[in-house]
Amino acid sequence: MRGQPGHENLVEAPYLEDVRTAALYRLFYVDGRWPALIPDDEGAEIDCELYEASEELLARLAEIEPPGWERAALQLADGRTAEAFLGDPELRPRGVDISAHGGWAAFVRA
Description:
- By secondary structure, the chain is an alpha+beta fold.
- The protein has helices spanning 55-64, 104-109, and strands at 15-20, 25-30, 34-39, 47-51, 69-75, 81-87, 95-97.
- Strands 3-2-7 form a three-stranded antiparallel sheet, with no helix packed on it. It has a two-stranded antiparallel sheet with strand order 1-4. It has a two-stranded antiparallel ribbon with strand order 5-6.
- A hairpin with a 3-residue loop joins strand 2 and strand 3.
- The longest helix is centred in the middle third of the chain and has 10 residues, at 55-64.
- The radius of gyration is 13 Å and the shape is globular.
- The two termini are 16 Å apart.
């Protein structure tokens, strides 16, 4: 997200808008370092940002994502679908559920 570590990886991707996920995911803080949206039947709406990213950029991002994060369809609260990097459910034991914060930026501010 804007203003967060790693955002420089999106410098060539135009920001489109702030959105929220559908309540189909939980947000985890994994390994004391990484945010991960993980699909969950008891999910929460999570703040996120949309960017217009080329296939080349997405391929480069896939190379730098840690193991356990994969490109997948992300359902948004408004019914649209976007592509994102989602965490594998196997990451849960390595993380802390921070969904109550409503998003990564809010968690970092807290």
